[in-house]
Amino acid sequence: MVFGQVVIGPPGSGKTTYCNGMSQFLRLIGRKVAVINLDPANDALPYECAINIEDLVKLSDVMMEHSLGPNGGLVYCMDYLEKNIDWLESKLKPLLKDHYLLFDFPGQVELFFLHSNAKNVIMKLIKKLNLRLTAIHLVDAHLCSDPGKYVSSLLLSLSTMLHLELPHINVLSKIDLIESYGKLAFNLDFYTDVQDLSYLQHHLDQDPRSAKYRKLTKELCEVVEDYSLVNFSTLDIQDKESVGNLVKLIDKSNGYIFASIDASAVEFSKIAIRQVDWDYYRYPFIHTCLWWYGVVLPQKCFRVW
């Protein structure tokens, strides 16, 4: 059984930075990690990827050969990957024995709530390779500073959740920068817990551009509330504690915490409902600090408490 994450989100939400930081953190706590780049437009990777879709298809070549724009080109690339899924499966098989997988997907949001190619790729991998994946949907935290953009992000998150049909965690990324975007109308908990959205109506009505769509906005907010599926975790990728808390949540959602447990269904249920409290920081604190500030120590320097 192999565990991993499907990292998605709009352009600029920090997917590649997330994969880079998350892979470093997971290696720090003792996991072997493989990052799989499935974004054919991402040609400046800050991390070492185990598999790169550009070895199969490149967006620039597709755009030139078929006279397509970047959006059409990405749809073509995902369709091409689906038709050549055997290529990806063969690349993944050597990693299945002992690696944790991070899939870095493109930022074109239509791929995850409108088109079926990306979903088909994920589902085929899950079925054929017995993967346990959680979708990590990154949303830039600055959207909270604009009520209209925040409602749009809720609709995008809900549509993506319903379309992908995976264990799903929505994340407000770059939370460390949120104060630089201006004062929020409500406390951060209002935006992460997606509380009573009717309170946003007053702020939306202050904007003449959105006031005339008052009724439409109200109905859209009610759609989000009726499904009652959307909430957000927060993430500062440079904060070890923030990343660690998110990892705990992800491990609970895809079943990683249950992988080595031999217990009854009752015990599994108890673990599932209680707060996660196992130790993720197995290595000496001094080594953690050195790593976080860029000092790389040999693996033999680490020891388990």
UniProtKB/TrEMBL annotation:
Keywords tagged on the record: GTP-binding, Hydrolase, Nucleotide-binding
Which is a Gene Ontology cellular component entry for this protein? cytoplasm
UniProt entry tagged with the keyword Isomerase: no
* Keyword DNA repair in annotation: no
Superkingdom of the source? Eukaryota
Q: What family is this protein classified in?
A: Belongs to the GPN-loop GTPase family.
Note the subunit structure: Binds to RNA polymerase II (RNAPII).
| Function per UniProt | Small GTPase required for proper localization of RNA polymerase II and III (RNAPII and RNAPIII). May act at an RNAP assembly step prior to nuclear import.
Protein name, as recorded: GPN-loop GTPase 2
Species name:
Rubroshorea leprosula
